[in-house]
Amino acid sequence: LDPGFGLNLHSVPIFVGMLAALTFGTLFTGRLGAFYVRWRMHLKHQLRIHPAGLLVAVACVAISRAAHFSPGYLYGVISGPQLERDLNAKDEGQTLAFTFAATFFISIAAWLTWIPVKWAADQTSLVPFIALDVLLAAIFVGGIEGILFGLIPVRFQPGEKLRRWNWPFWLFMLMVSLFT
């Protein structure tokens, strides 16, 4: 989404950092609920790829660039876990609560780690520090945005299921993420 992004040296650490953040989000953060289900309920899961989500993400970037949105808009679900069976409302609520809370703590940890990394990147302009700066910022922003959008209480969002299961926890997570 960076307007200066292109085939130049400036873009290399941004590309590396965003690729690492996308990989982290896909392989770890996006599967937190599945890890919880495996640990608590001993259910297996597999990663399910959504190629159409990647197309949506690319379209968002193209539209943002064409319309000169700054910052640009990016949305697209690329993958997600598929469990061996559906969960009941209580198990699903607990899994969502764990997922939102863990995502929040990972996001805060990324932000706290980002502070000295950002300073080092600004002082040295070294590619590894800049890439790590981009990675940690993307994990923080992506995590908080993911929580906020995920908590929207509409039928197709996990926030509705969490709200129905435990509305005080849903409201608490919403307030904490809004004020972060």
Walk me through what this model shows.
- This protein is mainly alpha-helical and 180 residues long.
- 68% of the residues lie in helices and 6% in strands.
- It is built from seven helices and two strands, in the order ααβαβαααα.
- The chain has helices at residues 11-27, 32-41, 51-66, 89-124, 127-150, 158-165, 167-178; strands spanning 45-49, 79-83.
- It has a two-stranded antiparallel ribbon with strand order 1-2.
- α4 (89-124) runs parallel beside α7 (167-178) and α6 crosses α7.
- The longest helix has 36 residues, at 89-124.
- The chain is globular, with a radius of gyration of 18 Å.
- The two termini are 23 Å apart.
- The relative contact order is 0.14.
List the helices and strands and how they pair.
Elements (H helix, E strand, L loop, with lengths): L10 H17 L4 H10 L3 E5 L1 H16 L12 E5 L5 H36 L2 H24 L7 H8 L1 H12 L2
Antiparallel strand pairs: 1-2
The string of secondary-structure elements, in order, is HHEHEHHHH
Radius of gyration, taken over Cα atoms and rounded to an integer in Å: 18 Å
Gross geometry: globular
Provide the spatial order of strands within the biggest beta sheet.
Answer: 1-2
Roughly how many Å apart are the termini?
23 Å
Counting DSSP E segments of at least 2 residues, the number of strands comes to 2
Mean pLDDT: 84
Low-confidence stretches: none
The helix/strand class is mainly alpha
The main sheet comes to: 2 strands, antiparallel
What amount of the residues lies in strands?
5-15%
Helix content: 55-70%
Question: Helical element count?
Answer: 7
